[in-house]
Amino acid sequence: MNLIINAFVWLANPERWSGPTGIPVALAQHLGFTFLSVLIAAVVAVPVGWAIGHTGRGRELAVAVSGAARAIPSFGLLVLLVLLLGVLQTGLAAVVTFVLLGIPSILAGAYTGFEAVDRRIIDAGRAMGMTEWQILWRIEVPLGLPLLVSGLRAATLQIVATVTIAAYVGLGGLGQYIIQGINLNRFDQVLAGAILVAALALLLDAVFAVLERLVVPRGVRAGRVSSSGPTGRRSHAAAAAPASS
Q1: ∠ at Cα 232 (227, 234), nearest 5°?
Q2: Calpha distance 116→144 (Å, rounded)
Q3: What is the pLDDT of residue 56?
Q4: Which of 60, 67, 161, 198 could serve as a FRET partner for 130 with CA atoms 20 to 30 Å apart?
Q5: Using CA atoms, how far apart are residues 71 and 77, in angstroms rounded to an integer?
Q6: For residue 206, what are the contacts with CB-CB under 8 A and spacing of at least 6?
Q7: pLDDT averaged over the chain?
Q8: Residue 236 pLDDT more than 70?
Q9: Is 1 domain-assigned?
Q10: How many whole angstroms separate alpha carbon 179 and alpha carbon 173?
Q11: Among positive and negative, which fits the CA dihedral 146, 150, 155, 161?
Q12: Cβ–Cβ < 8 Å for 143, 110
């Protein structure tokens, strides 16, 4: 209990919120690495995932590559890239590490979003004379967007937690308080750093949870509401009830 109290005392110290090593600066560094990595990962993974989902080809390869990328230990990869690229390129090594971590979740969200679209809707679009580009942008992208946002959400949470190790190679971020605390045997500081990272992850998760709801097309939301209403429940119950002789 004393450790938790000491951690919040450490956080409440005004000195922690000012200067070049203050929490606002560390938070900005942490968010900078997170958003840059998610953005690059999305630029790489979203077009590939959409192509796989639209054409139905290459899914097995994507699953295999994603599984291999998930199996790579992030800390080991970061250290390896720093050794290969040199200490002057630690920022690049960190971004490459975080991008590789985020690609699998975004890729999976992109192609599963398209796969979840009812094929009858796509067939109806083709029957109406829509081109493949129109089907992609007017049907598949809007309907697949919620699962894509879900993939972005998972990637962001993975990256925001892993950016903590950037402090190990001197890149700052909220992880610096954990690394410094371990070296100094200041476990109140270690816990305070962990609380900051956890709070940031929870905040970002809440933002993406709201965004997931917002990107659901209005027609789909209206269909869900009507199906969950009294009439919808009665129709479901009637369909499920056995016919009486």
Answers
A1: 155
A2: 7
A3: 85
A4: 60
A5: 11
A6: none
A7: 87
A8: no
A9: no
A10: 11
A11: positive
A12: no
Q: Where are the alpha helices (DSSP H) in 56-186?
A: 59-71, 74-85, 90-115, 119-127, 132-135, 141-162, 175-184
Q: Tell me, what's the pLDDT at 143?
A: 93
CA distance 47 to 100: 16
* Residue 40 within a domain: yes
Residue closest to 75 by CA, chosen among 152, 6, 175? 175
CATH number at residue 53: 1.10.3720.10
DSSP-derived 3-state class of residue 207: helix
Please give the tally of structural domains in the chain.
Answer: 1
Give domain status of residue 4, yes or no.
no
In Å, how far are 13, 66, 158, 215, 225 from 164, measured between CA atoms?
22, 22, 11, 30, 41
The listed range with the strongest mean pLDDT (84-88, 183-187, 200-204) is: 200-204
* Confidence label for 226 from pLDDT (cuts 50, 70 and 90): low
Helix, strand, coil distribution of the chain in percent, nearest 5: 85, 0, 15
Question: What percentage of the chain exceeds 90 in pLDDT?
Answer: 64
To which residue do tokens 């402090």 refer?
A: 167
CA distance 171 to 78: 12
- Cβ 99 vs Cβ 33: under 8 Å: no
pLDDT band at 237 (very low <50, low <70, confident <90, very high): very low
pLDDT at 92 over 60: yes
Cβ contact 190:182 at 8 Å: yes
Q: Report the SS3 class of residue 58.
A: coil
Domain that holds residue 225: 23-238
Q: What is the pTM of this model?
A: 0.86
